[in-house]
What does this fold into?
Amino acid sequence: MSFSKWIGAALGWSFGGPIGAIIGMALGGIVDAFGNGSANTVFTEAETRQGNRQSHQSQRTQPGDFEVSLLILASIVIKADGKQDQRELDFVRQQFVGMYGKERANHAFRLFKEINKQQNISTRQVCLQIRQMMEHPSRLQLIHFLFGIAKADGLVTNDEVSVIYTMAGYLGISHSDYESIKAMFYESADTAYKILEIDKSATNDEIKKAYRTMAKKYHPDKVLHLGKEHQKGAEEKFRQVQAAYEQLQKERGF
It folds into this structure.
């Protein structure tokens, strides 16, 4: 699939609003990919999809809209500490290759590099558009992926934590959900409790109840509509919830 066809298929509701402006600027930087005719085709297709989605806002997020949202938020996180580490860029590429295959990943990374050149992306405006159009389980998946990017160089900096925390707030992610996902990337004495969104004073019955709640919240089927490529990340969250519960079972002997 050519880049022009890929981008035309990828953009739905994300073509409008502040995200649309960012993508428009990025496409402007990929001048060799478009003649006037192919560019017009891409934008016409995207605008048509956007109009269809606006009339059905309750419809679930499509893979292309999730993908574009992920590229923009990843760019913001990577630049949060004032420098771009090659390991973080490699992580983004590897994740896309693993999810989409080499050809589609190359298209995505090409767009990502152009997005990454933009200096004045409004985190608030982008996140509010995502919050309005994207359902909660998919937004949780975005936060999980962003922590993975931040951890790719071996260290999550305070600047990166701060920007992901800000994003989570704008995205409508609760503090407890944010701390649960964050704990999946840190090792501490109370990591298992944080993942299950409880504290150390919880009873065994409360731990069991918390596990059932978190297993339901992070079940991979929650993002089934995004395609099997995005279920891998959801499965990782689900496994960490299971591991946290099994650790507490072992420690408490129940």
